[in-house]
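Methods — Computational structure assignment.
A single polypeptide chain was analysed. Its primary sequence is given first, followed by the predicted tertiary structure written as structure tokens.
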Amino acid sequence: MKLTIGFSPCPNDTFIFEALVNKKIDTEGLDFDIVMEDVETLNQWALQGKLNISKISYGVLPLLTNHYDLLDPGGALGQGVGPLLISNSTHNKSGKPLEECLIAIPGKNTTAHLLFSLAFPGARNKKFMGFSAIEDAILTGKVDCGVIIHENRFTYEQKGLVKLADLGEFWEKETGYPIPLGGIVIQKNIESGIGKKTAALIRQSIAYAYGKYPVLPEFVKNNSQEMEEKVMRQHIDLYVNNYSVSLGKDGRQAIRKLISIYSGLNGIDPAPSVHFIS
């Protein structure tokens, strides 16, 4: 059986899926057509039902629960891994109220946007753009501030940018749960046994990757946008963890809490219910 699967070129995703999509493990009769795109593109495609299996931001999950189930492994949750609100040092010293700032956000349906809206409900002057363009937009004055995700959290200080707020830290203090960043969804019309097999294969793929680590396969390095290997490993160490193997009770509670908050912010009653596949 052939399935389409989408994930980002970021090291955490390529690290998780490399053995699966390159058949370094026995895929038990499943074949995967790979598409690699930024997470906001994948979010939009998930809203359109374009791929059988896809990485998505948890921020868009409440809009997908009628058509997709959530696989237990493969995602990104954790402590101290959240998006950061940053600016340049000049803006930081100006004292301009955030409500008057133009703020770059890495996609409307991203978890980063949801966390920013939760932390700063009065800041509504937003510009949505790809996450990799946000640092340059701040440096060139196209925006006042920006929310960064992924590897940018390791490099922003090198460019003279400064942190205004840690949105993940805000979430953790408010809820007591790990931060749900991104997960793997599978279309509901796919037979449940295939979903369970896919979940098991993702766990095997992660185990295979860790069996070779810290050596990085060419698949990871070639898709990492010229990132230094040190930064690739920082990225993997931060975003691939026990929650990537299994959400566990607190991971599932964190996701339900995020859906509840999303529903409250957007006037959805009752909150959507998500079905987990282990």
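Note: The chain has two domains: 2-77+181-277, 84-175.
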